[in-house]
Amino acid sequence: MDNQQTILIVEDSPVNRKILSELLKKQGYTILNAASGEEALKLVTTVLPDLIILDILLPGMNGYTTCIQLKDDPQTRNIPVIFISSLDATEDKIGGFEAGGVDYITKPFQPAEVIARICTHLRIRHLQRKLARKNILLQEEKQKSEALLQNVLPCRVAGELLATGHCVPKLFTEATVCFADIVGFTAASSRLSPETIIGELNEIFTGFDAIATRHHCERMKTIGDAYLF
Fold first, then answer.
1. CATH H superfamily, domain 6-135
2. Which residues in the chain are classed under CATH 3.30.70.1230?
3. pLDDT single digits (tens) 1-21
């Protein structure tokens, strides 16, 4: 993970904004500045920072309220907020965490401490995003595997496997089995692209499924262009 990330500094003191901005620019971060909570909330509607440094004693809306509103918005709720304030009482710090902050730095601050805390929370945020992407991929693979299972097994069997993880064999003393096969499929498939073949088979088998359901039948298996029910 590199430092080409954006940090929003919400601080009403021009001196403190300048000190923090210069400190973090030297670390390679892109810096945005806001002098009030209202300005910060307006700014994040156009640019989403990777992290926010937020003062508490601001003109108008204070830092606590600003953070609460950030956490109420689905677009900004996952952005880590580090409070930085001259308020150093325990209740002030607790208020920051209750508002949704991930950390609290007291003024006057030590530059090395600010950098270390920012790096830590940006790293955590990076890992959270990475985990979220992996979860999305896992969910997509799960959906693909479930669809494949439902395509190659009878609906009842596939449903039971998905619900319980196993399937109890059942005996049917009277049953009729039908087998459908597309004439000339092998020759036709040599002239068509894989995407076209899959699309055609999906359309045909969807029609077969509708017919089987309408006549209270159950699909047993599909293999290539073969449909067994």
1. Response regulator (3.40.50.2300)
2. 153-228
3. 555 899 999 999 999 999 999
